[in-house]
Amino acid sequence: MNISNKSVTVRVPGKLFFAGEYAVTRPNGLALVTTIETDFAVRISKSEGKSRLHTNVNLHDFEFTLSHISFDKENAWNFALTALLKTLSAQIRNLSALTEEICVEIQSEMGFGEQKKGYGSSASVVCGMVNAVNEYFGLELALEERFEIAAATHFEVQGSGSMGDIAAIMYGGSVFYQNHHRIIPVEIPWKTYVLQTGKSAKTSEKLKIELSEDFFVASDELVIEIATAIDINDFELFKEKLLENQLLLLKNIPDGYMTYKLSVGLNLVNSHPELAGKISGAGFGENIIIFAKSDENIDKLRERLKNYEIELIESKISMRNK
């Protein structure tokens, strides 16, 4: 084990589901997820006193010792502490042998509580912690091992989930994901934008909605068709299938899935042939992800959206991790 006295900073992307966000919650369910670059970062450095967790969001610091990481399930730092404990325990049998302490700083512009942007902040915390701890302590855990630790952490703390967000954020780029079975890289050839409504929605509550088997079958088929359109670089087919997927959700998800702002944004985006928009994630607020074959009308669209207090942001798909 090589404990470094220098600091380690790991940048972490956010995730946006654009297909299969409900179907992937069941065994073998399929989804397409992309990751976008964010300002989210986890920094670890040596501490002169106790170990400490600190963040720029509205959360109190938490002090502890590495040799005895103890906390209750109601601790607001549960995701970070569980990720820390599981990552260290993967390579270090006796944590009591650790004599140095660390300072962990989490910087996030993803929002917190009612201001969350819907980019998967809890998954970003977990993946960022696992990667930063692995690098700082020289644990040399492979990407697959880090994914398993992050997935186990997120599932244990949240109590549910498909791990699609963990898969996307840990691997980076865009992925075709099969619940707990496969992670296949996907290369999206078009520019991406995010339309933000400014309304937060807690995804875990929305994913408890009961849906029919016919819905799941149709969703999986559309995920495969959308992935195929990406693979052959057929934007028109991609948009057609993305809109079919959107319609499937609108027909099956209870009222409230598409808010007024999401409705306005979706109609304005998809009125342009060279743009394809889809409500990201579980709906009920948050974002629309936009793919652009051409961005010739983006400035005009941005100005129109401002009239509805909707923000359009150019985003960049993150690099793949190793």
UniProtKB/TrEMBL annotation:
GO terms for molecular function: ATP binding; phosphomevalonate kinase activity. Keywords: ATP-binding, Coiled coil, Kinase, Nucleotide-binding, Transferase. The keyword Nucleotide-binding applies. Residues 291-318 form a coiled coil. It is an enzyme of class 2 (transferase). Pathway: Isoprenoid biosynthesis; isopentenyl diphosphate biosynthesis via mevalonate pathway; isopentenyl diphosphate from (R)-mevalonate: step 2/3. It comes from the Bacteria. Residues 228-307 form the GHMP kinase C-terminal domain. Its EC number is 2.7.4.2. Residues 100-173 form the GHMP kinase N-terminal domain. This is phosphomevalonate kinase.
